Amino acid sequence: MTKKEKAAILEKSAIAYYSGFSGIEIKEIESGIEDYVIFVAGAWCSAKSVHRAIIKSTTSGNLYFCYKGNRIPLNDCIRCNAF
What we know:
Structural class: mainly beta
Mean pLDDT: 92
Radius of gyration: 12 Å
Number of domains: 1
Strand order of the largest sheet: 4-3-2-1-8
Distance between the termini: 25 Å
Shape: globular
Number of helices: 1
Low-confidence stretches: none
Oligomer: single chain
Number of strands: 8
Strand content: 35-45%
Order of helices and strands: HEEEEEEEE
Helix content: 10-25%
């Protein structure tokens, strides 16, 4: 991602959040052949960073994405009303 794309993502409102890793805010989900989640890590501190991770599924059908080698289940993310 370019700096301009990262800046645009940082300005977007969050659609969901996760309280680990100093706050993870999910900004959007890209659908296609493979689905990706675009999120900001460290959202509640001064060291914000934009990431793009593939959405994977466990054998039982639970969806998750990985950040720093850790699984973050999408069902543990709290949805925001950002309309």
